[in-house]
Amino acid sequence: MTLRVLYFASLKDRTGASEETIDIRDGADVAALWAALQERHPRLRDVTVRPLAACDMAYAPWERTLDGVREVAFLPPASGG
Amino acid sequence: MIRIQPGPIDVAALLAAVGSDADGAVASFVGIVRNENAGHRVLFLEYEAYAGMAEREMEAIATEARDRFGVSRVAVVHRVGRLEVGEASVAIAVAAPHRAAALEACRFVIDTLKRTVPIWKREHVEGGAVWIEGGGR
What we know:
- Chain A is of the alpha+beta class.
- Chain A is 22% helix and 28% strand.
- In chain A, strand 3 and strand 4 form a beta hairpin.
- The longest helix of chain A is centred in the middle third of the chain and has 11 residues.
- The termini of chain A are far apart.
- Chain B is an alpha+beta fold.
- In chain B, the strands form 3 sheets. Chain B has a 4-stranded mixed beta sheet, with helices on both faces.
- In chain B, strand 9 and strand 10 form a beta hairpin.
- In chain B, helix 2 packs antiparallel against helix 3.
- Chains A and B meet through helix 1 of A and strand 5, helix 2, helix 3 and strand 9 of B.
């Protein structure tokens, strides 16, 4: 399946892109996607605080399977306000 | 009124937007860019948001505030882009029949926003810039 992946703040600096398209096997979950992205972007490997994930703009646990999801975002801890 | 915007926040318009003849109280919170953080000078801040999700999360917080505190209306506006010292980064207005609910709901909205709404600030200091992530201060 094909997904749109979004990165924000320091994660965007590490990947050098705010978004990309990635193909991943059917049935993969958020954790599997993150592992695949770490393969693709070596600088994601030393992220110390595991980011939050959002699937189609809603927070999702890392066990969430991605079937039917179109957009996954990885979000560092928020610092708005 | 719930939104992420690049331009300056009109706080007076926000206060006017939530009020009604049935509400005796409008509480507000305005977050301002400070000139220092943890002992070092801050030149300016840059805010980034996952705008679509941020607006959804802010809507959810406003709905929860109305349910929990019985307030009438909640408005939340957060800026993105470059903000200078002294500029408002976020403004919240809450209208309610009486002050206690308005004040409590306003505090709930800003405290929750800082934890859950996908917005980040990048602090520009002498010689560089760094993303601030987490803390919710």
